[in-house]
Amino acid sequence: MKIEPTKEFACMMSIMLESKLIWYKHFHLFCDYIILAYEKPPYWIIELAAARYQGDTIQIVNRYIHSEPFIDDYLNSLHDHYIACLYMKYDRREISWASFLLGSGQYADHYQAVKVECEYVYKMLNEYEAEEFDMELEHKQSEEIRETFRNEIMEVQNIYDVFRVYFKQYIKKEREAPM
């Protein structure tokens, strides 16, 4: 999959950054590639290539997203993708199931634009806690969430797979660097 530095891509990247699914090791080499590939690379990509702190990276991407021409409708359609990012972090064992449910519930409560209401997720969390974090219940609930957010998970996964290649290259380059 080839990624173009469009506003739509930046919106998805913002969600991935805010959920902490990706960080600078995932996109620095991507930015370098874009800078070399374009005669006039986008300024936000140049800025992003030098940023390391998550808050700074989110600010750079969001500044670009919220500049003209505005694409608020597209940005507002991505709220379910945040839950998909959290699910991917759970699936990779970066976060626990309880952390996934809590984060998803808080996000759904804050934005109220997610396809499931926060009460739905909090109910799952309450059941999970009441069952003392039962693995069988976790599996059942995670399958339910995976099915509900299947399309969003696949969309995020496609972009994440590209960033993952850059991440591996970054780590390899880091290991080979003289100390």
Short characterization:
The protein is mainly alpha-helical and 179 residues long. The chain is built from ten helices and no strands.
Note down, in words, how this protein is organized:
By secondary structure, the protein is mostly helical. Helix content is 74%, strand content 0%. The chain has ten helices and no strands. It has helices spanning 7-18, 24-37, 43-50, 54-65, 72-76, 79-91, 97-111, 118-130, 135-148, 150-176. Helix 3 (43-50) packs antiparallel against helix 4 (54-65).
Q: How is the quaternary structure best described?
A: single chain
**Strand segment tally:** 0
Roughly how many Å apart are the termini? 34 Å
Main sheet record: none
As a percent range, the share of strand residues is under 5%
The DSSP helix count reads 10
- Shape by Cα distribution: globular
Mean pLDDT: 94
Unreliable residue stretches: none
H/E series, N to C?
HHHHHHHHHH
Helix content: over 70%
Summing up helix and strand content along with how strands pair, one would put the structural category as mainly alpha
Radius of gyration: 18 Å
SSE topology sketch:
Elements: H1 7-18, H2 24-37, H3 43-50, H4 54-65, H5 72-76, H6 79-91, H7 97-111, H8 118-130, H9 135-148, H10 150-176
Helix pairs in contact: 1-4, 1-6, 2-3, 2-10, 3-4, 6-7, 6-10, 7-8
